[in-house]
Each structure stands twice: as C-alpha cells, then as structure tokens.
Amino acid sequence: IAKRLEKFKTTIFTQMSQLAIKHGAINLGQGFPNFDGPEFVKEAAIQAIKEGKNQYARGFGVPDLNSSIAARFKKDTGLEVDPEKEVTVTSGCTEAIAATMLGLINPGDEVILFAPFYDSYEATLSMAGAKVKAITLRPPDFSVPLNELKSAVSKDTRAILINTPHNPTGKMFSREELEFIATLCKENDVLAFTDEVYDKLAFEAEHISLASLPGMYERTVTMNSLGKTFSLTGWKIGWAIAPPHLTWGVRQAHAFLTFATSTPMQFAASVALRAPESYYEELKRDYNVKKDILVDGLKAAGFIVYPSSGTYFVMVDHTPFGFENDIAFCEYLIKEVGVVAIPTSVFYLNPEEGKNLVRFTFCKDEGTLRMAVGRMKERL
Ligand code: GLN
Q1: How many Å lie between the centroid of ligand 1 and the Cα of residue 162?
Q2: What one-character DSSP code corresponds to residue 38?
Q3: What is the distance, to the nearest Å, from the Cα of residue 298 to the centroid of all Cα atoms in its chain?
Q4: Dist CA 189 CA 201 (whole Å)
Q5: 10 Å Cβ neighbour count for 227?
Q6: 17 CA closest ligand 1 atom index
Q7: Closest C-alpha residue for ligand 1 atom 1
C-alpha cells in the first residue's frame, strides 16, 4: 500500500457494520437509515432509467440538478450562485471532500480540522500531501477553543474545515464561533471548506452556512449531499458550491476522480431537491421522536449523554461502566449486549482524547431503537 495510506485501517464504519452482521447485533453504529427514502424520489429514478437517461452525465452535473442545487442554496442562505459556474455535482459529499482537497491543496499546505473529525478528512488530506492540524472540541458542549484556534493558524495554513452540524458530536457551530473563524480566514487569507450534510437535521439551533457571512463566499467551498436529508445514503449524490476560481480546482480533481456521477440518480436528486418545505418539517419531526427514544434510553441505561443539537448522532461517555477505553467498551457492547456503537478514538490525531467517548445513531425505525435501548438497560 502507498505510504500516504499506510496509517489508515479499514474504516471504522465498515469494521463495525461487519461486526454487527457477524454477531447479529443491532447496528446503531454506521449512520445509514434502516428505512427507505421517499417514494416520489425513487419513482423519479425509475422514470429516468426508463426514459433512457443512462449514459455519461455532463461532468460537473446534469443542468437540471445544478439548477435545483443553486435554488435550494438560495432558499437556505440567500446567496445567488451560478449553477453552471459555481456548482459541481459529485459522487457523494465524500467525493466533494476529496476533490476539494486534491484540487485546492498543495503538498506541504496546512489544513486545520476540528477533532473529533470524520475519517475521510484526514485520509484525503494525506493523499493531497497536506499537513493536518487538529483543534479538539471537548465535552460537555464541544465549543471551539477560540484562542487555541487562533494560535494554530500559521503562514502555511491554507484552509480550515468546518463540519456543522458536527459528526460525531452533534454540536452545531454558533454564529459567534463562525464569525470568529470568518475573521481568522479573512485576516490570514485562509480558505474555508464546509461539510453541511446534516444541515436539515438541525434540532436545537439554527443552521448557519459559513459562506453566508460577509466576505466569506469568495473563499468558501460549501459541500452537501442528498443522502442524509432523503434517507438515500446509497445513492452517493453530493455537491460542492464555490466561486469560479475555487470551482476550477474542485472540477479538475473531480474530472479525474470519477469524471461524472450516475445520470439517472442526478435526475431523481433534482426532483428531491424541489420537495416542498413540509417534507423537511416532517423529516425533522420524525427524527425528534427517534432522538428522544435513544437519548432517554441511554440515560436510563446509565450513560453520561452529551446534548446533541443536530445530525442523527448522540455522543456519550461510557466510563460509568468501568471499561478501559472506547474500543473495549464497544467490543463488550457488541458481544454481550447485542448493540453496535462507534468508538470515537479513531477521530482524533491523539486517540487518547476519544477513549471515553462513543457515538450512537438514531437513524433507525422506532422499534429498532426501543429494542436497542431495552437491551442496554437490561444487560449493561
Ligand atoms: N457518514 C456515516 C457515519 O458517520 C458513515 C459513512 C461511511 O460509512 N463512510 O456514520
């Protein structure tokens, strides 16, 4: 294996989902719904396939989808973007992240992440030859240590990556935090990359796109996807929105990574993004019920549960149960309790920092969530 990938193991999500199957445990680990996306979107995909929309799509997206993405971005942020010059459709947000890193980061550039961070950020930065600096967000509220962040910015800093709502903590970056980051970016000529795939799962606070702050659009790549919002994680439709000078880099990388994304699914994604607001309201209402079942159950089972404002994840401290670390706890949880969670130490540069923390997801039907919390209450 190439040196740039030597330190990365099979992703923790794959490992844990395999263990779930092996031990017949309830999977509250990897974040994928165990229910299906909406009928009208699935119908649109079937329709597109039947209508023969099956050859290569335009590299940066089928025009219809680029327009739907721009329209939704306008609704969400008030920003008017050119669908032809500032929107790039990718194979999931994961590809948008890779294309952004590979298209805009030079070897030796420094990029700042907030730990715990989603695993693909570090791996794609390694592919780009970048140096990673991590600022740790600490419980209970995972707020940004502003002074630490400020001193981390150096002359080599090329970008700061912000994921809000934040996986795995459920934290949402506040307006004050985003303003502080925006000022740092502007003063030091640093770019911002934002992963906003959970923007429609904002329960306790208002989601704010960093690009909408004054002077930020021109230095930000805003990334999002269809998977979480439409419970279609397997479709792998994502996108990056950025001003033309940054889109240039993203598109060049995208052109040589995947060239284009699945054509019929892009037509269906376009239909999905034109859903009425009531779709998003209902999604949130459903998820609120699920979240309460999981959070109440975890508390009753004896965990220290940290408040989650957004995403479909909840972070807990497992130390009341007396295990050495998150890996040992998760192993016990799978084998003896029959529930899978995600150990979080892999999301830090220094694994020690995550050893008390474990992530659970509530993107499962209510029966499954009740069964999982029932097992934990009984067997832990
Ligand atoms: N984003 C999903 C999660 O955090 C997993 C994606 C993946 O398996 N790579 O659970």
Answers
A1: 17
A2: P
A3: 23
A4: 31
A5: 22
A6: 8
A7: 31
- Tell how far the Cα of 119 is from the centroid of ligand 1, in angstroms: 9
Q: Which domains does the chain have, with CATH numbers?
A: 3-30+278-379 (3.90.1150.10), 39-273 (3.40.640.10)
CA distance linking residue 149 with residue 169, whole number of Å: 18
Angle at 279 (CA atoms; ends 278, 280), nearest 5 degrees: 90
CA-nearest of 84, 35, 64, 50 to 272 is: 64
User: Residues 269-285: pLDDT tens digits?
Assistant: 999 999 999 999 999 99
Rounded distance, CA 110 to CA 160, Å? 9
Asked if residue 105 lies in contact with residue 125, where contact means CB atoms within 8 angstroms, the answer is yes
- Give pLDDT < 50 ranges for the chain: none
Tokens encoding 260:
């284009």
CA dihedral 278, 279, 283, 284 (to 10 degrees): -30
Residue of 211, 231, 220, 222 whose CA lies nearest to 279 = 231
- List b or e across 94-131, with b for residues whose CB sees 16 or more CB atoms inside 10 angstroms: bbbbbbbbbbbbeeebbbbbbbbbbbbbbbbbbebebb
Query: Which residues, including other chains, have CB under 8 Å from residue 249's CB and lie 6 or more apart?
Result: 100, 103, 104
Residues with CB under 6 A from ligand 1: 11, 13, 30-31, 167
Ligand 1 center to 163 CA (angstroms):
14
Q: How far away, in angstroms, is 214 Cα from ligand 1 center?
A: 32
What's the 241 CA to ligand 1 centre distance in angstroms? Answer: 22
Residue 298: per-residue pLDDT: 98
Hey, which of 11, 18, 32 would you mutate to test ligand 1's pocket, going by the most ligand atoms within 8 Å of its Cβ?
Answer: 32
pLDDT of residue 9: 86
Distances (CA, A) of 31 to 157, 234, 341: 31, 11, 10
By most ligand atoms within 8 Å of CB, the mutation choice from 118, 236, 313, 342 for ligand 1 is: 118
- In the reported structure, the alpha carbon of residue 193 is separated from the centroid of ligand 1 by a whole-number distance in angstroms of 19
Distance CA 339, CA 20 (A): 8
Of 222, 269, 261, the C-alpha closest to 241 is 222
pTM score, two decimals?
A: 0.97
